[in-house]
Amino acid sequence: MFTCGIDVGSVSAEAVILDKNENKNRICTYIISPTGGDSKEAALSVFNSALSKAGIAQEQIESVVATGYGRQNIPFADKNITEITCHAKGILYFFPQTRTVIDIGGQDSKVIKLDPDGNPLDFLMNDKCAAGTGRFLEVMSKALDINLENFAEIFKKTKDKVDISSTCTVFAESEIVSLIGHGVNKNKIIKGLVYSITNRIISMVERIGLEEPVCMTGGVAKNLAVVDALSEKLKVKIYVPSEPQITGALGAAILAG
Fold first, then answer.
1. Is the pTM of this model over 0.85?
2. Which of 8, 46, 93, 163 could disulfide-pair with 31, CB 3.0 to 4.6 Å?
3. What are the chain's domains?
4. Mean pLDDT by 10 residues, the chain (257 residues)
């Protein structure tokens, strides 16, 4: 039986097609694409692209479940489920023993605590401020004129950092421009920025209560600088799925049917 999960976020949309059988669920294919200005169109686009990539007709899909902030705008979905539940279910596909999930997306971040059976016990979400999200990193990358892909290497090789005092994205950008104007080394600024993001996430983790194993999902999980900084500060190993952006859509596909 084939099912499909669609996760429509503020920045990107993902679709996962799952082959569900009695022995083990298998990911047939997945698609990641920018959401753009129309969440309904983005959902339809990733759905059709996933069908095409998998070589599966729409009629073969038994059930479609939508999640993410745009989940209620997907008319062809059979039902919609919150991203908290879907992320919890999706991460267990990769790491069945997970107890804490740190999810950092384009414009929000959340920490989810799971019970021994993988059910969500508690969560905290920051969706009011871009600080501590992928959007924050993108803005700072442009201000520094340094590609985000280079942050991990720079973070690793740079010993000193410059503390970024501003917690607001707009003010932090102004602070960085000022630092650059005063000739401060950009590598030190990047190291400070990464710690600035992790400090906001750590405060959320501390309020929830850290339990291991800890896993990280969302687009920012691809930035190893942030993963390494969180691991260092929390003093735990952080596990990252092979494709951390599809966890929500994968959980939705698992819950379908």
1. yes
2. 46
3. 2-95+246-255 (3.30.420.40), 123-239 (3.30.420.40)
4. 94 94 88 92 96 96 94 91 94 96 88 94 80 78 88 91 79 88 92 89 93 95 93 96 96 93
